[in-house]
Amino acid sequence: MRKLALVGMLVLGLFIGQAQAESAKVLVATGGIGGVYYYYGTQIAEILTKNNAVPATAIQTAASVDNMLLIRDKTNPDKKTYFLATVLPDTAYFTVTGKHEKFAEKPVKASILWMMYPNFLHIVTTDQSGIKSLADLKNKRVSPGAPGSGTEFTALNLLKAAGIEPENFKKWERLGAKESAEALVNGTIDAYFWSGGLPTGSIVELANTLKRKGMNLALVPLAETDPGVAAFMKEFKGLADPTVIPKDVYGLKEDVPTLAFWNMFMAPESLPEDLAYTITKTVFENLQTLHASVKPSKDTTAENTARFVGKTAIAFHPGAVRYFKEKGLVK
């Protein structure tokens, strides 16, 4: 009788989860057309819809901050409408804690479903700049990234943790990756920040251009022993993963220590646990489809996500945690 009761409970649970999925509506907030977020989110929506997990539609957005606003302001549990989103980790942290100006009075209540793929932080310079550490950026001409970009957001937070303010620089430019590379070649800046995948095409091109001019590309090391890096990692617990940029990626003399920032796939806390479980399970049972369509998604694996559970400043959704526990990857 106990076995029959247990089976009945399991069947009832599956039925309730399926009923929730059928009546719910999911919108996946992505990013601009042409960016990885857009293609990643679009593929997630297709996987969820085609596998009958939940009807899902991907929408183009201005990316991370916009996406967290949608989770906060447009999710409507009463109408069973839920926004999921691709988000940079430090943006997620600032919006959940209310440290971002747009969320100061009303932080977003969101949690992580899984980790997507890492962005590697680059501080790009030349072997003739004299910049060997984060502290050496003082009194130099520096670009932290384009205005409002994820790169600039990360750069400013790292510099603040290191006690370096904009007035400490000889020149303060706000340029995108391509424009920063051109400025470095032309000698109008000494270094610039970039957060992206490996390899980043514009940096590969930069390395070749510098060689033709008798210079070599150099990346500023961001080791855990650096006081500024240590302070940053303490403040943003679990959001920055110590790693290295292999020397072969850009033809460097040695591997360069840096930080990897794992993009997060987020959901509102109000997303029902059974639905969060179904969404997570469906995606991870169809990873081959995602990996075949979006190259950076090769790092979206159950193992990569599991090692972050319980170790990040933002909590994982209980429904997602249930899936990783079921897989034996989380205790």
UniProtKB/TrEMBL annotation:
SUPFAM superfamilies in the cross-refs: Periplasmic binding protein-like II
Transmembrane segments: none
InterPro entries associated with the record: TRAP_TAXI (IPR011852)
Keywords: Signal
Segment forming the signal sequence: 1-21
Protein name per the record: TRAP transporter TAXI family solute receptor
Organism, as annotated: Desulfosoma caldarium
